UniProtKB/TrEMBL annotation, chain B:
<keyword id="KW-0472">Membrane</keyword>
<feature type="transmembrane region" description="Helical">
    <location>
        <begin position="54"/>
        <end position="74"/>
    </location>
</feature>
<feature type="transmembrane region" description="Helical">
    <location>
        <begin position="150"/>
        <end position="171"/>
    </location>
</feature>
<dbReference type="InterPro" id="IPR035906">
    <property type="entry name" value="MetI-like_sf"/>
</dbReference>
<feature type="compositionally biased region" description="Low complexity">
    <location>
        <begin position="9"/>
        <end position="30"/>
    </location>
</feature>
<dbReference type="Pfam" id="PF00528">
    <property type="entry name" value="BPD_transp_1"/>
</dbReference>
<keyword id="KW-0813">Transport</keyword>
<comment type="similarity">
    <text>Belongs to the binding-protein-dependent transport system permease family.</text>
</comment>
<feature type="transmembrane region" description="Helical">
    <location>
        <begin position="232"/>
        <end position="257"/>
    </location>
</feature>
<keyword id="KW-0812">Transmembrane</keyword>
<dbReference type="GO" id="GO:0005886">
    <property type="term" value="C:plasma membrane"/>
</dbReference>
<dbReference type="GO" id="GO:0055085">
    <property type="term" value="P:transmembrane transport"/>
</dbReference>
<dbReference type="InterPro" id="IPR000515">
    <property type="entry name" value="MetI-like"/>
</dbReference>
<protein>
    <submittedName>
        <fullName>ABC transporter permease</fullName>
    </submittedName>
</protein>
<feature type="transmembrane region" description="Helical">
    <location>
        <begin position="285"/>
        <end position="306"/>
    </location>
</feature>
<feature type="region of interest" description="Disordered">
    <location>
        <begin position="1"/>
        <end position="31"/>
    </location>
</feature>
<feature type="transmembrane region" description="Helical">
    <location>
        <begin position="117"/>
        <end position="138"/>
    </location>
</feature>
Length: 348, 321
């Protein structure tokens, strides 16, 4: 999908050994490097989440029981149950060993393995996040590249301004307002959409799909509204960087229409840095997802995180922290692995 | 950093004040002062051409005024739940222009009083974040080798992490106080600053006068504090303005999730109160709109200022974020 500027400018095609090196020895080494880096990052998350939860001032067991009157025997039992009677380094090795076998502990609130709760909520979050991610990336890139192509014009000023305004709006506030206007109904607007949840219950087959889609509208609109601005700004400045390129002058000189110069030559080159930044910014999206799921009572990881925070259910918070961080790291690694296949200049 | 000096005459002249002949009796201090004034005037003249930047500055001045004069206009009694003046959840009226909350407190007073906490926490968290970022950026750029590699690895790791989740976790495990909120936001948002400052440090250290300073016996501390730091300060200023905006949003988020200091009123906390009091399902939009609008306007104002400062300092940047 990338057009090499040199090729577009009509120069001799680059020697084939460049591609050969990417497909031959260099790419596996690149993959190994990236996978190694991801493994180190995951390990760092694991270590951080262990020590983060040992920062709690005072006795973690007292914290878990939430200040209720508990006898000394019960406290000791809790300590044994959560392995808190062991020395710190033993707790740590125990924790790491369990985490590597997929055991993130037992939820204090649900009395169920943390991994099970995460597994139940994960598909719902993927549905919400995936839909929003695709939409806000496409909208951001399309609007951003158009704004950059006519930079300084009224369209550019309007879209950049709107993106900045939406970027400054707290996502949870926008969600609450949308609920008031479109679910509860304000003035002449009747309640068009459900106030929260993922399904009304009772539907099956196609009706169920429609029902879930109906519930999905407002959360997705909220997430897209607060997140597309960043993609727009990134895509806009990436294309502005490409605007001075000689290969664009050449493309115009050979008589290509303006739209084609943008679509076939400029945008593909601007897409690469944009995608890198879109994936780096996924961490921000995770925060948005947590808030939107909380506001719309979406039964996903974010809603679960909020439930865990309000208790606070420390094993569940810890497990979800690991899950969110791991998801972002995995997505970034995937983006890194795809990058040299799209752009032969990377990873050599 | 005093850039608000509109009656500086040298601003629009083609010849900067610094290059005018200096009286022979002027010492180096007077010379430095004169140069600083001239560059501040130049800065302001260019800043003035950004209309959105001026709008942001105006909005900030207004909010700062409201926050600073709050003890005179509404008084700290506005937070008191026990002797609230109105009935619970009153609609906007002449007595309570924005209505009342579930305890009968005036919402206008609460929003005005909440500006103090939201702005203070945002400022402090941004200062902490930028201080950490600058320290790590300068040291990683100055000392090469394994130290820099390690620092940049940590920075990249933080950059990819969902930092708000990290801040939420920190705020959960530590005690509920404003200090915790400042700490949680500050220690999770520094990586972008660190990367920018490191890049600038590398550029500055490649200049010949750094070599001269080293040849004259300047140590690490001297080079970093006297030569590198002044050169990264403009960048740090722009970055601080941008970070304040996200710090205010982060503070509102933490407060909305119930992780703020429960004893003080902030805009995010008001939204949480509104949600818990059932203002959403009852359709009481007038309870929800003002605090959220205040957050959005202040965050936008800081972003606009930061972008204007950024493009004044680096015109090549266009208006990239």
């Amino acid at each position: 999908m990338t057009r090499d500027p040199a090729v577009a400018a009509g120069a001799a095609p680059p020697p084939d050994d460049r591609r050969a090196r990417v497909r031959g020895t260099a790419y596996p080494r690149y993959v190994a490097g990236k996978l190694g880096g991801a493994a180190v990052s995951l390990l760092a998350v694991l270590v951080t989440s262990f020590f983060l939860f040992r920062l709690i001032p005072g006795d973690p067991v007292k914290f878990m029981t939430g200040g209720r009157q508990v006898s000394a025997e019960q406290l000791a039992a809790y300590r044994r149950e959560f392995g808190l009677d062991l020395p710190l380094w033993e707790q740590f090795t125990d924790y790491c060993g369990k985490a590597l076998t997929g055991d993130l502990g037992t939820s204090y609130q649900f009395r169920a393995p943390v991994v099970d709760r995460i597994g139940e909520a994960l598909p719902n979050t993927l549905l919400l996040t995936g839909t929003s991610f695709v939409l806000y990336t496409v909208i951001g890139v399309v609007l951003g590249t158009r704004a950059a192509w006519r930079h300084g014009g009224p369209g550019d000023r309007f879209h950049t301004g709107l993106a900045l305004v939406l970027y400054s709006i707290p996502s949870f506030w926008l969600g609450l307002l949308l609920i008031i206007v479109f679910s509860v109904g304000a003035g002449p607007v009747p309640g068009l959409f459900p106030t929260g949840g993922m399904e009304s219950g009772g539907e099956e087959g196609f009706a169920y799909v429609l029902d879930v889609a109906h519930h999905l509208v407002l959360p997705v609109v909220t997430l897209v509204a607060v997140e597309y601005g960043q993609t727009l700004l990134v895509a806009r400045s990436a294309l502005l960087d490409e605007m001075g390129g000689d290969y664009l002058t050449t493309a115009r000189a050979k008589g290509l229409r303006d739209v084609l110069v943008r679509r076939r030559h400029a945008v593909p080159n601007a897409l690469l840095p944009t995608m890198t930044l879109v994936f780096i910014n996924l961490g921000r999206t995770v925060a948005g997802v947590i808030l939107v799921e909380t506001v719309f009572s979406w039964p996903g990881l974010g809603g679960l995180f909020y439930q865990a925070l309000s208790v606070p259910d420390l094993p569940l918070v810890q497990g979800l922290f690991f899950a969110f961080a791991a998801a972002v790291i995995v997505m970034n690694t995937l983006a890194d692995l795809l990058h040299p296949l799209l752009d032969p200049r990377v990873g050599r | 950093m005093t850039t608000k000096d509109p009656d500086e005459p040298a601003a629009s002249r083609p010849v900067p004040a610094a290059s005018r002949p200096v009286p022979a009796e002027a010492g180096p201090r007077a010379l430095a002062r004169r140069r600083r004034r001239a560059s501040a005037a130049r800065f302001w003249a260019r800043y003035r051409t950004h209309r959105s930047g001026l709008f942001g500055l105006g909005a900030l001045a207004l909010f700062a005024l409201v926050a600073l004069t709050a003890p005179l206009t509404v008084g700290s009694g506005v937070q008191s739940v026990t002797d609230a003046p109105g009935r619970p959840m009153e609609s906007p009226s002449a007595e309570f222009p924005l209505g009342t909350d579930q305890f009968g407190r005036s919402l206008l007073g609460l929003v005005v009083w909440g500006a103090r906490v939201s702005l203070l926490v945002g400022l402090l968290a941004a200062v902490l974040s930028v201080a950490i970022g600058t320290l790590i950026g300068i040291t990683a750029g100055h000392f090469r080798g394994w130290f820099a590699t390690l620092m940049m690895r940590i920075t990249d790791w933080f950059l990819v992490m969902p930092t708000l989740v990290l801040a939420i976790v920190l705020a959960t495990v530590l005690s509920r106080s404003l200090g915790t909120v400042v700490l949680a936001i500050g220690v999770t948002t520094w990586p972008t600053t660190a990367r920018l400052v490191r890049a600038q440090t590398l550029a500055v250290e490649a200049r010949p006068y750094i070599e001269r300073a080293r040849a004259l016996g300047g140590g690490h501390w001297h080079v970093m504090s006297r030569h590198v730091l002044p050169n990264v300060m403009p960048l740090v200023l722009a970055q601080t303005t941008l970070i304040i905006s996200s710090a205010i949003l982060a503070e509102a988020t933490l407060a909305f999730l119930g992780l703020g200091d429960p004893t003080v009123v902030s805009w995010g906390g008001l939204l949480q109160d509104a949600r818990e009091a059932g203002a959403v399902s009852a359709g009481k939009w007038w309870y929800l709109v003002p605090p959220g609008l205040a957050i959005a306007v202040v965050a936008l104002a800081f972003t606009l200022c930061g972008r204007a400062v950024e493009s004044v300092l680096n015109p090549r940047l266009g208006v990239a974020r």
